[in-house]
Structures are given as C-alpha cells and as structure tokens.
Amino acid sequence: MTPSASRAEVVVDLDAIAANTAVLRERVGRPLMAVVKADGYGHGLLPATRAVLAGGADALGVAVLEEALALRAAGITAPVLAWLHAPGADYAAALTADIELSVNAGWALDGVVAAARATGRTARVHLCADTGLSREGATPVEWPALVDAAARAQADGEITVVGLWSHMAYADAPTHPTIAAQVRVFEEAVAIARAAGLTDARRHLANSAATIALPETWYDLVRPGIALYGLDPLGGDAATHGLRPAMTVRASVALTKRVPAGVGVSYGHTYSPQTETTLALVPVGYADGVPRAAGNRAPVLAGGAQRTIAGRVCMDQFVLDVGNAAVQPGDEVVLWGPGADGEPTAQAWADAIDTIHYELVTRIGGRFTRRYVGSAGAV
Ligand SMILES: *Cc1c(COP(=O)(O)O)cnc(C)c1O
C-alpha cells in the first residue's frame, strides 16, 4: 500500500473492480448487469460504475431510483435497472432518464403505465417473481394477473417487458434444496409470461454466489454485486475464484503510550494488558462505520503483526495493544484489505464479529476519506 499521511482513508483499487468484472463476464460468457447499489457497495457509486463498465459490464443494477438518477446525472449512459420502489416513486423521472424499472405488483404497474402516458415514453419493465425468497417479487398466486396486466400494457405500447427476474435465498449454499425449488418456480413463472406473449424478455436470477457456483441460474443475464468488489459471496478466499478485494481500510496512529500491566483500556475497562506494554490510539470509531462489536474481537495490522482491538470501539477511536513493537504516531494500521501484505481481510473481520463482509464494506464511511488507485474507468 502506498504510504499516505491521511488520518483515515478507504483506498479503492479501480483496476481490481474492472478485473473482477472481466473475470465474471468471461466465466459466464453472457451479458452481465453489475450491481452498484449502496454507493457501489461502499466503494463510490461513480468510480465503481466506471470501473465495472471498463471491465465489460453490459448493464447496471441499483436498488432505488435515486441511485439510478445519480448515474444519469453523472452522464452514465449504460442501461440501468432500479428494482425497489415504494408508492410515490417518481416513475416519470425514471422514464425521462431512460431507467428500466422492476414491477412486482398491479399498483406499481399502474403507476408505471401512468408515467408512460404522461411522458409519452415506453417504459422498459422487468417483472419480478417471488420464487421463494419472500422478498421483492410477486408470489406465484399473484403472478398470472400481473403478467396479464403487463401483457395488455405492452400491447397498448405503454411498456415493453424486457426482463423476467427473481432473486435467490440460498445461493451461497450451492447444494441447498431451495435452489432447485426456486429454479423450478422461476421457470414456471417464465412459461406463464411467455404464454401471455411476453416472449422477448431476458431472464435473470443469479447474484454473485450463483454467478460463481450455479450455472443453471445464469439464463440470459447475470446480476452480481459483491464479487465485483473482490469479496467471496461464499465466505471463502476470493482468490480461488480469480477475484481480488478492491477495498483497503487504513488509518494513521494518533498517539502511542507506554503503560504498566493491569491498566484498564477504553470505556468499561474490558481490556487490561498482562504486562507493561505500548498502546496505540487509532482515530476511527463506530461513527465511521467501524462496528462497535469489533471491540476485543477484530484484527488490525499494526507494527508488523495483526492485533485484536483492545477494549471497546468508541465513537471516534479505538486502542491497540502493540506490545513492544516500535509503533510511532503516524504509523499506518490496516483494518482490512486484500490480505496480500499481512493485513486482515474483510472476511476475517466478518468472521470475528459474526456478520458478513457486505455489511462491513457498505457501512464504512463517516469521516474516512476515499482515495482511488488504478486507472480503470478514471475520468
Ligand atoms: C444486491 C442484489 C444483487 C447482488 O447481490 P450480490 O450477493 O452482492 O451479488 C442482485 N440482485 C438483487 C435483487 C439484489 O438486491
């Protein structure tokens, strides 16, 4: 990692994001919709988007309309699908900006049709089926009526159904019986839609885990997110899939001090060194997205070794016990990164605090600055 004087920064490797995109695109040999929601999984919406496009992504996927509109406002012209809407969503603005919309209910279809009439544009719609996640799709009971209404709107020229899609509950457990069950329900939903005349829609089902492990879910388009950022959705070593983590979270030591055995460290004194030691103060905390649960659990690279955070993580800072290592104020510590230089990985943090790396990378922020390295998609 390039040395830097920054107090606290998230370093994002754009070339890693582009290379990961290319690896996945190559693996599936069909179009890839890169998911860049949640500020590009914490890597920065626009830089991450430009990097996935440089890596060969064919389309972009986001959760909410605001994210899609931000892409258009920045001049991104690639196809964009936004799939999570609530009543009151500004579908007219979406159509004006040429954003594709997921529809999962009759009231939502009515809203999209009204927006199509108001703007004079034909809406590009992806119908979403609930095939067993019980989350954003229409259930098998609701599906035939939704399909019929969509087919009528398509015949009237108000919409074109360009996608039929669903989402997996258990793709990270590739032998789980729900996988075959969801594929079966999805294929029934597709058959119903095709019988109703929606014959041109592309089918898409695969998130990152399915893109890596379940070729039977690839259909006409895959829809990975986390793997683009180099993290293994299966919870293992991303390198086994040819992926490289793009994010490094680092900070500079703010203060060091020698303390005797037995002092209490940080709020509640939940940590005490057994012997005289050096404590190093790291100026980032839970307000910056370092989970409070990391206290006495998560590893940090400091002074040439990984050390568990000493005591509680505070709002703005935490403490490391670095023993007799010659750590000085200004020295770099690394919370997580690719793991190539002895630093912990986001996966190691996730394991240590009982969460998933998705949550760690999307929540890191606060007063960290972001710095980009690599040139993929740079403007
Ligand atoms: C977030 C999301 C994805 C991407 O999931 P990953 O596990 O990050 O690959 C794909 N589809 C939908 C509907 C999502 O919400």
Summary of the model, kept short:
This protein is α/β, with parallel strands linked by helices.
Number of separate domains: 2
Quaternary organization: single chain
CATH superfamily of the largest domain: Alanine racemase
Kindly report the CATH topology of the largest domain.
Answer: TIM Barrel
Could you outline the blueprint of secondary structure elements for this entry?
Blueprint: E1 8-13, H1 14-28, E2 33-35, H2 37-42, H3 45-54, E3 59-62, H4 65-73, E4 80-82, H5 91-96, E5 100-103, H6 106-119, E6 123-128, H7 143-155, E7 159-165, H8 177-195, E8 202-206, H9 208-213, E9 221-222, E10 247-252, E11 255-259, E12 277-282, E13 299-302, E14 305-310, E15 318-323, E16 332-336, H10 346-353, H11 357-363, E17 369-373
Parallel strand pairs: 1-17, 2-3, 3-4, 4-5, 5-6, 6-7, 7-8, 8-9
Antiparallel strand pairs: 1-10, 10-16, 11-12, 12-15, 13-14, 14-15
Helix pairs in contact: 1-3, 10-11
Keyword list:
Lyase, Ornithine Decarboxylase, Chain A, domain 1, binds pyridoxal-5'-phosphate, 17 strands, alpha/beta, 5-stranded antiparallel sheet, TIM Barrel, 11 helices, 2 domains, 379 residues
